[in-house]
Amino acid sequence: MNVLFIEDDRMNRRVVRDMLDVAGATMAEAESAEIGLEMIDRDTYHMILIDLRMPGMDGITAIRHIRARGDAKAELPIIVVTADSGVDLRERCLAAGADDVIVKPVAMDQLFEAMGRILAGDRGGSMIA
């Protein structure tokens, strides 16, 4: 499985990379939404993990760009990985086109549970905090 993690914080990318390594997945990294969108154009991924708060384009806007594509990549599973919280966070992310939301700090079991649910076809599962 090839995962793209769009996240501006290097340490957060490293932690998630280590988790995905345990599962035998590979992870590509994008330090901004703009770079992530370019990478989606060039390469093949099975899933996207994305932060909400990044310099430049935010995660919600990036998700909308991905969902607006006119090709199969518009259907890539997307999990929001964020430190944000709030009453309407989940609803905003799902409305933008995310499939699930997990809240930092990310625990390996939370990440794998969300990924497993989506790969099993259960998009829009419960928010994991």
TrEMBL record:
Start and end residues of each Response regulatory domain: 2-119
Alphabetical list of InterPro entries matching this protein: CheY-like_superfamily, Sig_transdc_resp-reg_receiver
Domain of life: Bacteria
Swiss-Prot/TrEMBL keywords: Phosphoprotein
4-aspartylphosphate modifications at: 51
Residue stretches in coiled coil: none
SMART domains: REC
Protein name: CheY-like chemotaxis protein
